[in-house]
Sequence to fold (340 residues):
Amino acid sequence: MNQSLQTLVNEAIGRFRQAKTLSELDGAKAAYLGKKGKISELFGLLKSMSSEEKKEFGLELNSAKGVINSGLKDAKERIEFTQIQKKLNAQSIDVTLPGRGHDKGAIHPLTQSRREIEKIFSLMGFEIASGPEIENDWFNFTALNNPKDHPARSMQDTFYLEDLDNNGDNYLLRTHTSPVQVRFASCNKPPFRVISPGKTYRVDSDATHSPMFHQIEGLWLDRNVTFRDLKGLYIDFLKVYFDNTEINVRFRPSYFPFTEPSAEVDLMFSKGQLSGKWLEVAGAGMVHPKVISNFKLDPNEFRGFAFGMGLERLTMLKYGIGDLRLFFENDLRFLEQFKC
Ligand code: PHE
Fold:
């Protein structure tokens, strides 16, 4: 290669080596290999040369171009490598940091409580049933001896849905789990014992009421079930659930359209923060003969009792929780206390 060509090559490689970024390198490349670059200009000279000169100079030019190209490739690799290196340094992982760990989750306190209640009633021979949360008027009210326009309906104000299929049915979010009594008893022949846990809805919202809450319904139908059976069974349940044989339980006369006689079940702890106060935990009573007829059963042949309890209430009393809204806020500081 002649002297001046060699100088040009060295100059090009020198500039490539100095380039710090790919765009600087592009600039340098254009200065030699671009359309108006120095090497391209030299190629332009070939036209005016004799074929002898052309051959010799062409060879030299091509080998110069090859050297420049390989210098360019080296420079490009160097720049890319440095850039990756920089990026990796910026993102570096500090392997000396302590690990984040995998915390064990917790079962929601209402779920824990529901499972516990299901277990106790299963041991007492009850099966578990469920029903829809969107009910119609018949199952939620009418079949339960709560006729249209009866003032007792206002005890349970709820959310009504539009009659979308226009069949005259009033759909609503069920106000209690009692409709499951009707559904279950209409397709199962007594004797049976059943509980039914699930979501219920009412227009109510404060520290002790939520528009959505949970109830657990119970129904025992047979030929000779009495109020005594209801008392014995429910008191036993409360003692097992609260793991406390010293609680006092009373059945206070009350009114429900679907039971007669009806009672409100109250309990009183003899020790602890809540002791000395009667606390309401359930509604109960003997299933009203009209309701038994609505089950399509003969009230002279079958009788039984029913009860309905608030799951939130029972859970609050068990764990000493003062505000029902804590169950639905999903604050981990609350939920993590129920890890077991
Ligand atoms: N369904 C009643 C309520 O929600 C509770 C209840 C159930 C009362 C069964 C008596 C018998 O208030």
